[in-house]
Automatic annotation (TrEMBL), chain A:
It comes from the Bacteria. This is Iron complex transport system ATP-binding protein. It comes from Devosia crocina. The lineage of its organism: Bacteria, Pseudomonadati, Pseudomonadota, Alphaproteobacteria, Hyphomicrobiales. GO terms for molecular function: ATP binding; ATP hydrolysis activity. Signal peptide: none annotated.
Automatic annotation (TrEMBL), chain B:
InterPro entries: ABC_BtuC-like (IPR037294), ABC_transptr_permease_BtuC (IPR000522). This is Iron complex transport system permease protein. It comes from Devosia crocina. One of its GO terms (cellular component) is plasma membrane. It comes from the Bacteria. The chain crosses the membrane at residues 69-86, 98-122, 134-156, 163-188, 208-229, 296-318, 324-344.
Amino acid sequence: MIPALQTRALTIGYRRHGKAQALLDQLDLAVAPGELVSLLGRNGAGKSTLLRTLARSQPPLFGSVLIRGQDAARLSAYDLARAVGVLLTERLAFAAMPALRLVELGRYPHTGWSGSLSQGDRTIVAEAIAAVGAQHLAQRDMAELSDGERQRIMIARALAQRPAVLLLDEPTAYLDVSARVEMFAMLRHLAREQNVAIILSSHDLDLSLRLSDTVWLIDKANRLIHGAPEDLLSGTALSAAFSSNAIDFSLTERSFRILSRLRGEVFVSATGAERDLLRTVLEREGYGLTDEPNRASFSVLATAEGWTLRTTQGTSGGSSYADLAHTVRSLDENPVP
Amino acid sequence: MSLEHHEFGLRPEVILGLCAALLVLTLLAAIALGSTAIPFSSVFDAVLGQLPPGHPDHDIILGIRLPRALTACLAGAALGVAGLQMQTLLRNPLADPFVLGVTSGASLGVALVVLASGSAIGTFLASGMGWSDGFIVVGAATLGGLLVLVPTLAIAARLKSAATVLIFGLMVGYAISAFVTVLIAGAAPYQLERWTAWGFGSFSAVTWTQLQVLVPVIALGLGIGLLSIKQLNALLLGENYARSMGLNTALMRLVTMGSASLLAGAVTAFCGPIGFLGIAIPHTARALFRTSDHRLLVPATIVLGAEIALLAQLISLLPGQFGVLPLNAITALIGAPIVLLVILRSRRGVFSG
C-alpha cells in the first residue's frame, strides 16, 4: 500500500542569513491512509515547523515529502490542495458567512475559473459536514459559533478538498475540556471512516496517547521518536521528553505527577478507587504510599463510614476527604490525641 | 443552495435587480436635472438623437450631462471595486484607495506627468487633454498608486496589526500629498486655483475624448474584479488558508494590487482624489445583501457604486444656479457616517482580524 504521506531523509528548520538551522533532521516517516498520528513535544520543539514543511508552506532544508507516493515539491498548487488539507492555529475573525459557505470554499481546487459548484461538489460538501458531525451547524453564521464548532467547520472545509492527508496544528487549542475530548473522538472516527491520514499536533498527552495510532514525539535532544503510544509508554521516551526536576510523567496515569519533597510515608489499607482517592489526598499533603507498615509515619484505613487515621499517639476518624486532608495537615503541630 | 436568502425573504438576485432599476432611474434624473431647466421631451429627443447639433439642449444634454453622469457611474463602480479588493486582500474593513494613500500616489503621478511634459497644469485640468495624453496620465496615476500600495502591502504582510497598516497608509498618503503640494507650489496662481479645484473632485471635467480612455481602462479593472471572484472568496480566510486551498497568493496579490491601482488611478487622473466612496460602497453592499460572498459583492458593488456616485453628483448640483458643491464634501458626508457605523457595529472591534 502506498503511504498517504512519507518523508525521505527530511531535514526541517530555518535558513537565516544563508545559514541553515536544523530543528529536526533525517526524518524517515510514513503514515498510512486512515492512520491518526499525534505529534507531541514541548513548545519550540519544531511541531509547527514540521507540519508547515509537510504542508509545503515552508521548504525543507534537505530531503523530500511524498504525498501518495508523489514528490510534494513537484505538485501544482491545485494538486497539492487536492492532496493535503490543513488547519492552522491562526484565529480568524469571521465575516458574515454561513458555515455551509465556508465549507464550500474547500472545493476551491476542484472547481473551474468561476468557482461555481456542481451537484457532485455539493454532495461532497454535505458529506464533509456530516463527517465532522456538524449538519445542525450548516446554516448558522460562523460569527455565532463556539470555538469548537468553528474548528469542526474548518476541518469540514479541509475535508471538502478531498485530501489524502489532513495536517492539523493544535486542533484542540482554545477548546474547553469537553470540546477537546469530543474533537479527539471525532478525529479518531474520521480517520478510519474517511480513510484519511491525520497528523495533528497537541499538548493533550492523555487524549493523544489514548486515541492515536501513532505518536511522533520530539524529545529534548531534538530527536523524533515514533511508535504506537503503548510502545512509547513502556519505554522511557515519554518521561525523558517531558519530565523535569519538578514533574514526572506517570506511566499508569498517562499524565504528570508533581514531585515534591516527601514529608513521610503512609500505610493505606484500602483498595480500588478508594485507595486512589486517598493517595491523591495524601500526595497533596506531601506523603507517599508504602506497603511497609514499619516505615509509615501513620496509617489510614478506609472504613464503611469514612476513614480512620492511626498514629503512634492515637486514632482519629472522619467521613470526608476534606477532613482527612485537614487532619493530616495539622499532624505536625498537634499530634493526634 | 447557491446564494443565501435575505432576511426579508427577497432573493439577492431580486435586490440586485431593484438596485439596477434604481440606477437607471437615477441616471435618467442625472440627465434630466441640472442648472438649466430642460423639458423632459427635449431630454428624450436629445438622447435619441432627434435634436440637431448646435441646439443648446443638445449640447447641454449630450455634451455635459451625459458624459458627467457616465463618468460618475464609472468612477463609483471603479472606486467601490478597488475598495472591495483592498478590503479583502488586506482583511481590513477600513481599507480603501483614499485611506491607504493610493489616491495620493495617483495625484503624484498626475502632477509629475503634467510638470514633466512642460504643459501648463491649467491646460490639462481645463480638459485640453487628448486621447494618448489620457493614457499616459492614467498610466502615471496607476504607477503612483502602486508606489504607495506595494510598501503598504509589504508592511501588512510583516505586521499583522490592521491598525498599523492603516496608519502607515495614512502617513504615506499625507507625506505624498505634502510632496505634491511642494511640487505644485511654484505654479502660477491661476494654475494653483485650478489644481485646488481638481483636488475638490469633480465628474464634470470629463469629455467624450477622455471617456474613450476612461471606459476601456475601468472596464479592464472591473473585468479583473469579476474574473477573480473565486480567488477573492478564498482570501476571506486569509492568505495562509487560501494558499493551502491552491491559490497562488503572490500572483493574486499582484493582480489585485494592479487592478485596484488602475481603477483608483484612472478615476483620480480624471476626477481628482475622491474620498470615502471606496469604503462606503462595499459596506453598503455587505449590509444590503448580508453576505461576504464576492459572487454577490462584486456585482453589487459595481451597481451600488454607480448609484451612490450618481447621487453624490446630483446632490452636488443642489445649489442650482449658484454653482456646485465640491464633490469630496458630498462623498465625505455620505461616507463618514457609514465608516462610523462599520466601526461601531462590529462587536469584536474592527481590528480583530
